[in-house]
Each structure stands twice: as C-alpha cells, then as structure tokens.
Amino acid sequence: MNSYQALREGLARRLPDGLTLLSGGRYVPRNHDVDYVFRQKSDFLYLTGVEEPDCLLLLDPVRRRQTLFLPRIDNHHRVWLGHVPDAREARGLYGFSRVMYTDQLPQALRQARGGYRKAYADEAAYKAAGAALRLPNRPAALRDALDELRACKTPAEVERIQRASLVSGQAHRRLMAAARAGLREYQIQAIFEAHCLDAGLKHLAYPSIVAAGANAAVLHYQANNAELKDGELLLVDAGAEDKGYAADITRTFPVNGRFSRRQRDVYSIVLETQKRCIDAARAGVSSVDLHILSMTIIAEGLKSLGLLQGETEGLVENGAVRLFYPHGLTHMLGLDVHDVAGGKKRVIPNPFKIALRFVAKLEPGFVITMEPGIYFIAALLKDPKLRRKHRGSVNFAKAETFLDFGGVRIEDDILVRPHGPPLDLTDVPKEIADVEAACRRG
Ligand SMILES: [Mn+2]
C-alpha cells in the first residue's frame, strides 16, 4: 500500500456510511486558448498524488473500493499536450486497483450507490455526478473529515515540506549574498524563483513578498517594483512547494549588509520572540497561548524602546501591542500555505477577541510556522480612533519617527514532536552576526 492509499483508507474510515466523491482541479481559462498554470486541488493531491486536471475520486467504503477517474484523451489532445497516461498505465503509476474514465462515472455511481443513504461530495463533484448519484449530500462533513485528517502530517508529507524548506532556504541565503543598493525588488524575486525552479520546484507556495524599506510594513506587499536603498532593511517572505507541500519562510536583512543601531534594536526583539515561541511550541500547548506569549515579549521589547508604556499585561489586553504586530504568530503549513486548521473537534476556546486562523492545541505531527513581526504601519499609527484609544499606552510621537522603517518579520517552519521542543525545518541564518556574514558572501 502506498502512502496515498493509506490516506484514502483514513478518509473512508472517517466517512464509512456514504459514497465519497471528490473532484480534482480543472483548467481555469485566462484568455483565448490560454489557461492559468494548473495546480491540482490540495484535497485531491492529498489523497491521490495525481497532478493532472479533470480527474475524480470515488471511495466506496462498504465494498472497500477506491476508483480514480481520468478524462478520456483523444488524438487532438495528444497533438497539443503530448502523452497522458491511460487507465491501465495510471493504475501502476498512482497505485489504484481501479481506474476508469470520467464518461464512465454515471455507470460506476449507479453500481455503487446501492446500500448507501448519503453522499460526501464536494460541490463540483456533486455537479459532475448529476442524476446518477441521487443521494442526499453532506459536503460540510466531508470538509471537516478532510480538515481533521490533513492536520497531522505523515513522515512522507514531512519529507516533502522539508525538501521545499531546504530549497527555499538555499534561495533565501542567495538573496542575502546578492542584495545591494540599486537593485530592484523584482530582481531579488527573480533570484529566489530561479533557484527554486532550477531545483525542480515548479510552483511557488504563494506570491513572493520582496519588500524594501517602508514597503515591509505592507503585510502582503505584492508590487515588488521598488529600488533597494542603502541603509534600508529588505524583508523577503517566499517559499516554494514540493509536490504541493509548501515552505513559508521570511527573513529580514540589511541591504548594505550591516544592521544599524535602530534596525538591530527592533530585529533583536523579533528574534528573541521567535526563539522563545519556538521553544514553547510543544505538544499540548495552545496556539492561542503561544500568540499571547509572542505579544507579551514584543510588548516588553517595545517598552524598552520607549514605544509603549504601562503594564505589559494591559498592553496585550487592550490591543496596543497590535498596532505594531497586527497578525497571528502561527498557522498550519501543508498542501496549503495557510493549511487546514484541524477540523471542528480541535477548536479550543479563544478568550482573546483576536481573529486567529488557527486555534488548537499543538499535536505531534503538526507542521506550523512561527512568524512574529514588528511593523510601523501608517494606516494604524495615524488612525485618529486608535490614537485616542491608545494615547496612554503608545508614544505616538516616537512611533512616527519610525514610519520610514518598514518592519521586521522572521519566519521558520517547525514540526511539533511528541516530546520536547519542535524540529526547526528552516535552516537560514537569523542571528545578527550570521545574517551579516551571509550578506558579506555576495
Ligand atoms: Mn506564514
């Protein structure tokens, strides 16, 4: 049994009383005769490893049967797109005992639906099945079962993330060596993406963020057009994926290779926060508590810089620290860069009014990011309502002197283990001396 078969068995065990039908991704047209680059749907990739479009998966738990449906390929298709595996070839290639063509789906469903009272089909699959399925559908239960199943990564999945992280990490090191004043952000992006492609990783996990100076204060900065300037920091948040499995890595380093005093002060707080939160990321610990820990350490640090004032606990509770750190510490990582959060059963109470994507107790096998940051965002620091609310907690006059600074984020990918601290899958310099050394290699 290959690892994908085991995962399909796992899903069938969770949904033993219905027929499960999943759709693969389809080409999305961009304009005449040109489609967007195809990337398989994550659920489908998870259960099959099949990277071709227009497929379907049927699980019949009572007859213990798993069927892959492929589009029937005609000669026209072969002329334009070359060889595509036929059903017989696909059996061996993907480890399915039964492979059929999608035009045989109605016939297969009519044979399989006897004895079932419900179906678990995603929306596109239910539509594709049409009248042949004729069972009440429970798509929410399917979604939840997949979320539950995908949360803990198997060793084979961890290996994929490790490789994505290794290659992306090498690319990040290259950037530190290559960056210098006068280059444009997109030239740094080009070096990152060329390295990943050269290593055979054809998809990025998400659009690369290459943000120099004040641009780093835009959390999902996309323009990547500006010129790198002497004396600025460069924030790069970029990762490739290996067979769908994402890396998500951020480093922030000086364009000229030397941190200034002010950059060093802010950077040290973020680094200290990240290291302490990584050490605390152990099985059984709540992701909400980790986020509170990160806010607490950042609040202490900002107090030492004279940007915040008052009791640390109060600064965390009243949200003052969030003017400088307005995002979550962690999210799950897997086939989606912001991966499924583990299903309904795993959700724990979140006493904070902060909307966090991932609210659960850590379990062995979770792969998560650790990405604290400090930013100087004009939209927050100049907001009249926020200024009124936090005038006792935030030194706004001082904060405004940082509006040219941008921000610092440091992000690693970690694997939660049964005991002790997690395994850090990211190997890119982050200590100040090591970052400066990596920048000198250019
Ligand atoms: Mn991230």
Tag the structure with descriptive keywords.
Creatine Amidinohydrolase, Chain A, domain 1; binds manganese (II) ion; 16% strand; alpha+beta; five-stranded mixed β-sheet; 16 helices; Creatine Amidinohydrolase; 442 residues
Describe the structure.
With 442 residues, the chain is of the alpha+beta class. The protein has 2 domains: 3-150, Creatinase/prolidase N-terminal domain (Creatine Amidinohydrolase, Chain A, domain 1, 3-Layer(aba) Sandwich); 155-440, Creatine Amidinohydrolase (Alpha-Beta Complex). It has helices at residues 3-14, 42-48, 75-81, 87-94, 105-112, 123-129, 139-151, 155-178, 185-198, 261-280, 287-304, 312-317, 378-381, 384-389, 396-400, 432-440; strands spanning 18-23, 29-31, 34-35, 56-60, 65-70, 98-101, 118-121, 203-204, 209-212, 233-238, 240-242, 245-246, 249-254, 367-370, 373-375, 407-409, 412-415, 423-424. The protein has a 5-stranded mixed beta sheet with strand order 6-5-4-1-7, with helices on both faces. Strands 8-11-12 form a 3-stranded antiparallel beta sheet. Strands 9-10-13 form a 3-stranded antiparallel beta sheet. The chain is globular. The site of manganese (II) ion has 5 residues, from loops.
